[in-house]
Amino acid sequence: MGTLGFLLAVLTVSGCAIDSDEVREGEDSEPILVGSVTVPGAFATVGGIGRRLELPLGLKAIALELPDGDRLDPSLAELGNLLFFDRRLSKNAMMSCATCHDPVSGYSITHFTRGVDGNPLSRTAPPTMNRLFGTEHTWSGKRTLERQASAPITSAAEMGLTREQLVAIVAGNAGYAIRFDQLVADGVLSAPAIAVDNIERAIATFQRATLMTGDSKVDRYQAGDASALTAEEQVGLRLFQTKARCALCHSGSNFTDESFHHIVPVPSSDLGRQEVTGLTT
What we know:
This protein is of the alpha+beta class. It is about 30% helix and about 10% strand.
């Protein structure tokens, strides 16, 4: 998928899909010209949350994963943005979430990274794009997005803080304190204002609801612009969807079925999904 679209939302730990009758795609929207074809506007109105979601071309609102009882809150997402890029949230004040989830590399990284002490880490950082449409997070599905938000920060091997140190650093910043207190006053967060759970929610909100990709060449082609893909690319897309069987797993508007598949055994000391399920096949 291609360019970034932006959406502000708030998330909690437990999630569920929105009912289809709660989603109304393209209502009251200005049409979009894609090549020579006019398509409905790329947004959806979701009932029950009182907000209109701006979606990049290609993403389908019916696939949204918004948690029960939560509401979209721009202020929480803005706070998560600040925390995501804050290098003070590491032992040496040199690493942030964005060190490994680099915006230049699609909020991922192209090589194995190193921890706060220069130690090599065993995995690359997964991309954080389109997590609003996701049900499984991290390479093994071990944690929710909220829990994963603090896991690298409080890992001795990664960013090197303890949970207590994380809270103390955030609480010691007057700007953060004001924002957290206001979100509690507004009923978005629960007291105490500066707690690990609330820090997790803010960072997860930024990732899951602000970072979206869409409007790629294939999105435009599937929207009706026959010139968006070359003849060779169109052959590749047909193979992808049929004989090559790629779409059996890489399906839907986000090109993933959000599942784990055992394809071929790879010699490794990293147990991956086996750590979660205990299964070997």
